Amino acid sequence: MPSENTTSGPTNAGFRDAVLRHLTYTLGKDVSHATVYDWRMALSFAVRDRVIDRWFAATRESYDKGAKRVYYLSMEFLIGRLLQDAIVNLRLEEQAFSAMQDLGLDFDTVVHDEPDAALGNGGLGRLAACFLDSLSTLGVPAYGYGIRYEHGLFRQSFVDGRQMEAPETWLQQRNAWEFERPEAAFNIGFGGSVSETGTQAVWTPGEGIVAQAYDTPIIGWQGAWANTLRLWAAKPVQLFDLDRFNRGEFAAAAEPEALARTISRVLYPDDTTEIGKELRLKQEYFFTAASLRDILRRFESEGHSLEMLPKKAAIQLNDTHPAIAGPELVRLLHDERGIAFDDAVEIACGCLSYTNHTLLPEALERWSEGLMSRLLPRHVALIERIDAAHAAKHPHRKVTLMEHGEIKMGELSFVMAHKVNGVSALHTDLMKTTVFKELHGLYPDRIVNQTNGVTPRRWMLSCNPRLSGLITETIGDGWVGDLEKLSGLEKSVGDAGFMEAYGKAKRDNKVQLSNWLQSAHGVKTDPDALFDVQIKRIHEYKRQHLNILEAIALWQEIRENPNAGWTPRVKIFGGKAAPGYFFAKDIIHLINDVAKVLNSDPVTSPFLQIVFLPNYNVTMAERLIPASDLSEQISTAGKEASGTGNMKLTLNGALTIGTLDGANVEIRDRVGAENFFLFGMTADEAEARREVADHAAKAVKADARLARALKAISDGAFSAKERGRYKGIVENVSGPDYFLVASDFADYWQAQREVDTAFANPQDWMRAAALNTARAGWFSSDRTIRGYLADIWHAESLLG
Ligand code: NBG
User: What are the C-alpha distances in Å from 587 to residues 198, 539, 547, 576, 718?
Assistant: First the structure.
């Protein structure tokens, strides 16, 4: 892994001494007693030291230049591990590697000791993490604001094929990257009452909680700039009740503290459906209110007048979770600083913008007015006033911010933002014609598109050293900071030497994955088989059940005709289901049950194997993606807002089998239709098909393979002791089938057979894979951030 060190500074020996110094003086450990944890911490501190000066300099420069800052408010930052990332961004590979070697340690073992910070559910949270990397790389003064969850996304295991959930414990050990900021703390109130005197309203909260900041520096590529991820932890206003304690009521005395801490205790394990818990609303207000106060404090410390706020602060709402920012900012400006209401709304709109990440109706947040009035009484009054102002401007409007006793957070965000963006071209178009149709008509310039992207530092340079090395050898290392340079690879795609090296990098990655599957999971796989990968949250719209149904049908066909020259394939699944989403949990169970039967079938297992890896997370994605041949992006068209895993896989040379959904459309446009396995209905066709009576039953009847696969499930072929176990799935697919599994099955089967044929010709396959890499440059999150800067934030890079 070592590559050329381009930073000046300490020599390798100097760096090793820094590690030793931290081991001794920061960790208080002697070399002879140091554990892997101690070494990992010492290495992290030595690396972190290299970030600090740059971090301070960036902060100073932002103040000196009076720069506009970008504030990214997000309930989730799925950052994963940071050590390797920082080493790669600082170009410290050589020094860190040789320091560990000198000290008699295995570099990979030390790096892999770091817990994976899973402060997010899926795409939305990982996108936020990629954006932080790009903002720092581009030298844009920016802060990420979120919650310092004590427990991130649950740890998943399988017992008899069923998903089990256990708490995640990333903070059990010390977190090497964060700095506690006891002085950066705000009191956040809930409940209480509002008194009005004349035009002035005063909210007196009934309870309070302290939001205290923890800062993590985020270093950009080559250490050119560093920003801050500021996460809020909930602390009690009063530590404990001494009177009760002295009376011997120990548990009761600790109650206020425990209750307060509850707010930042866990990440809600649900990314698409609203669970409607009071605690969730409290979390949302807690981090939004603390962030806005921090933003205003910084702004006011620079001595500007409040009308200048939109020129100095761009505040991005990552989905509706921080949507309360609209009324809260109006409250801070109007109630607390005396700005006229209309002006306060205008200033707030000038700062705020909102990204929508899903059109699934159940995922658009709505809060009951009752709950909201109880927790945030002043905000409800302000929302009513915002709604009235909107109605006055548009007397014929039909869409209101409040309806059936609920407050609609998507609509509130729309009205309070100067720009609203979708995350892929198709998704943005659908926003205009579906969920925000009327609002789009009233504000035709408000909706803009910013197709998602991924950071090439983590998703190529760091996770795929073999391919990165080859790319750099071929076109130089400019691609890391400018991914579009990958197009320079195209001319090498006809070159036999390059293609051999490309094929070797992929094969070596597959061997490495295969070895890990064996050592970590006891699964034996053939690295020459096609590695077919579906890694993402488990959801009906993502259609993991379509994938497993196809596997069953294929198994049946191979059994009938084992000598037909089948292309060996390993289907790898990874992903978690929300604990309360029973259908998704049944899909996991079914995949595991099917795997058990298929993997032990001596006739078919040389050709078809199923592996479901437990506890999929960022770290696992980093292992799987470089070794994948086929990327499954098979959502029902119109339902996947963008996808970002699809981009990572494309970049790493996996070919996609996919529908015309989300960013698949743009991926296919760029890599070329001939290098992409397209199947299925378009979003319009899907919409129309749902109107056809008995569409699923008809599709099942028309497709003997699908019918036979469903019958095997019903007959208990995979659940002999409980034949009815998957009745729900079978009935859904052959009955209502909202996600059109049955209707897309035949086409999917056909596309998979085309995959088989294509993979049997390794030269052509590798050529297509290399073209996928060469043409993936546009999907860098650097490009996405440039788009936000130009179209939404109107902020600038302070680098060069
Ligand atoms: C997800 C979408 C993905 C998209 C990411 C990032 C949520 C609510 N939405 O398609 O499902 O890629 O957001 O934009 O997590």
Answer: 59, 9, 10, 11, 13
Q: Is the CB of 658 under 6 A from ligand 1?
A: no
Cα 568 to Cα 523, 528, 609, distances in angstroms = 16, 8, 8
Tell which residue, 354, 446, 442, has the closest CA to residue 398.
Answer: 442
Residue 7 burial (CB count, 10 A): 13
- Beta-carbon-side half-sphere exposure of residue 201 (alpha carbons within 13 Å): 19
Residues 6+ apart with CB under 8 A from 585: 162, 163, 538, 577, 579
The neighbouring-strand residues paired with 217 are 228
pLDDT in tens, 448-467: 999 999 999 999 999 999 99
Ligand 1 in reach of 355 Cβ (< 6 A) = no
Structure tokens at 791: 């179209």
For residue 528, list its beta bridge partners: none
* Dist. CA 399–CA 408, nearest whole Å: 10
CA distance 357 to 410: 11
> Ligand 1 pocket check: which of 131, 320, 357, 543 to mutate, most ligand atoms within 8 Å of Cβ?
357
pLDDT, the chain, mean: 95
Buried b (16+ CB within 10 A) or exposed e, 220-235: bbbbbbbbbbbbbbbb
Dist. CA 461–CA 467, nearest whole Å: 8
Confirm if 141 and 67 have CB atoms less than 8 A apart.
Answer: yes
Q: Which residue of the set 148, 230, 536, 670 is catalytic?
A: 536
What are the pLDDT digits (tens) for 172-230?
A: 999 999 999 999 999 999 999 999 887 789 999 999 999 999 999 999 999 999 999 99
Residue 197, pLDDT score: 82
Query: Is 644 assigned a catalytic role?
Result: yes
Structure tokens belonging to residue 629: 């041949």
Closest by CA to 576, choosing from 563, 565, 587, is 587
Ligand 1 probe mutation, 271, 316, 358, most atoms within 8 A of CB: 358
Q: Is 646 in the pocket of ligand 1 (CB under 6 A)?
A: no
Tell me how far CA of residue 552 lies from CA of 27, 37, 781, in angstroms: 54, 44, 38
Q: Please answer whether residues 647 and 601 qualify as being in contact, where contact means their C-beta atoms are separated by less than 8 angstroms.
A: no
Q: How far apart, in Å, do the first and last CA atoms of the chain sit? A: 30
Among candidates 785, 514, 477, which has minimal Cα distance to 627?
A: 514
Catalytic residue at 648?
Answer: yes
pTM: predicted TM-score of the whole model, two decimal places = 0.97
Ligand 1 atom closest to Cα of residue 662 = 10
**Residue 537 known to be catalytic:** yes
Nearest CA to ligand 1 atom 13: 124
pLDDT below 50 — which residues of the chain?
1-9
